[in-house]
Amino acid sequence: LKMSWFWFYLPLHLLMATCLCHSIKAPTTSSQQSFKSNLFNFYHSLVLADGKETTIHLLKDIPKRYHFVLEEGRALAPFSVTVTPCDVPIEWSIFVYKSPPGKATPGDHDTQEVSKSHRTSSMVTTIFNYKGNSVETYMGMSSHSALYLLEFLSTERDTHITVYLTTDTTSGYLYPELPVDPRIDVIGIGHTTVTLAWKHSPSVLQHRESIQYCLLVNEKHNYKSLCAAETAIRSSGMKLPPTLALSLSPYLLEPQQVMILSNSELSIINKVSSGEVRQVCMGTKNTYTVANLSPSTQYYFDVFIVNLLTNASAAYTGTFARTLEEPEPKVTELKDGKVIHVVLDGKKQKFYSLQYQAKHKKIHFTFQLCRGQIRVHITRNGKTVASENLSGLRYFSLKGKLLDTYLVQLRSTEESNSSVKVQASPHFHKPLFPLLPESLKIKSFSKLRTCRSVTIAWLGTQEESKYCVYRKRIEEDQIWRELQSADRCSGPESRHKSEKVLCKYFYDLNLQRAVTTETIKGLEAGTLYLFDVYLFGPSGIPVRYHSKVVKTRKKC
């Protein structure tokens, strides 16, 4: 490739003479004016490198021009130009300045004098133009020396593109080759999965070690190039990790790793997770199942064949698919007086549904929160009658009509698993749980603490009930775990026999005096203890008070 510098130093008066000569020689038409304008542009363009991908930044409505020269003496010299828009559609054209046979080329440094007759007999011709955001390649052949001008223009906003020029088509191509049929086939659709397949690239068969497929998944639209996808992700305002610089280039990833954009932050993890954009590189496999998608959601899928040595890529024709609708949640029937223990998955955040058909006008729902945090929503014949977050033991007494249908929906409000016990029964049915005091808190008396004993107190009720006290020695770093992970529905059967302190019965018709105290002796000095009280009602099902941690005095 021979670059032209002569025209950059052409005297201004000679340039003006050239333009004047053209205007006198032929009638003025829009086509001729365009030719003269483009000839003038040759003198104000940059050299386009051969055999190298060039990134070009375009400002809105300001054209940018590059040129290259094909030498005389090369019989039928082939060349190709590939342009990849990285954002909005652009306009680009190729113009050629041809000299008549035997005349010097504009790039000939040995020609210091160029006659007017030579310049007027030269022609500027438009050989290609395109407008859009697809990757386009122009392949040409020149039989004599010529100077080529490429002009690029963005009319929507500032953007950037990549341009690849090559005059050596025999030593391998920068971009991987697409198959004859570059479409992506959707061969399977589920509620949360989509399975894709595509034809192998010829480049995979020739250069398996340096080629791999990468899949891009998003909910907005297809991308016509990896460059366009990278630009869209960056424009969302996210901050890229320093190790990625300004690229989402797949060669930075190991096979099976996933690049995810979620909450405007980019991360690389080893499994597919939800997010706005997912990029998965799977080596040379030409089938892939995308998992962990949302039901009844449309996704767009793009496959890129990537040259790991050059980081150049080619895009298959993108496709889209809609996942199947989520099946109706399974509804469990509630029967009179029967207790159901429900465990909820906090990660999936799905509702668990229970249905009850009333055989009486008054209905009594009881919920005992065992672990975690749970939201309950109750409807009667489709209309909401109660909705709140559960805490401890909760009763709902509802009045309706015979054969009313109640739907109870439960959902965990935190990421960890939650569990609850549920009972539905007619209002006059014998209650499952004992009568509860105003508070389930255990109180300790600091002034009554000694090195060997602790005094605690708790509220009772007007109903004679059984209370059992348990203690457990713990360490400082166990406090949070013991309090947070405690199953409030579990009874004393889950405790070690050595932890039991005592059981007692008491009640008082005057609620103001329904308080009992107990001094637990035989403890060790300066030691932490976890105390629990269990209340047993007529049905024998226990209710656990809130655990209390107390430390004995170190010195007495």
Automatic annotation (TrEMBL):
Gene Ontology CC: one annotated term: extracellular region
UniProtKB keywords: Glycoprotein, Neurogenesis, Repeat, Secreted, Signal
Gene3D superfamilies found in the cross-reference section: Immunoglobulins
InterPro entries for the chain: FN3_dom (IPR003961), FN3_sf (IPR036116), Ig-like_fold (IPR013783), NDNF (IPR019326), NDNF_C (IPR045805), NDNF_Fn(III)_1 (IPR055271), NDNF_N (IPR056225)
GO MF annotations in UniProt: heparin binding
Top-level division of the source organism's lineage: Eukaryota
Fibronectin type-III domain boundaries: 176-313, 434-542
SUPFAM superfamilies associated with the record: Fibronectin type III (SSF49265)
Protein localization: Secreted
Leader peptide range in chain numbering: 1-21
Biological-process GO terms, alphabetical: nervous system development
Function: Secretory protein that plays a role in various cellular processes. Acts as a chemorepellent acting on gonadotropin-releasing hormone (GnRH) expressing neurons regulating their migration to the hypothalamus. Also promotes neuron migration, growth and survival as well as neurite outgrowth and is involved in the development of the olfactory system. May also act through the regulation of growth factors activity and downstream signaling. Also regulates extracellular matrix assembly and cell adhesiveness.
PANTHER family: NEURON-DERIVED NEUROTROPHIC FACTOR, PROTEIN NDNF
Protein name per the record: Protein NDNF
The organism of origin for this protein: Vidua chalybeata (Village indigobird)
Lineage of source species: Eukaryota, Metazoa, Chordata, Craniata, Vertebrata
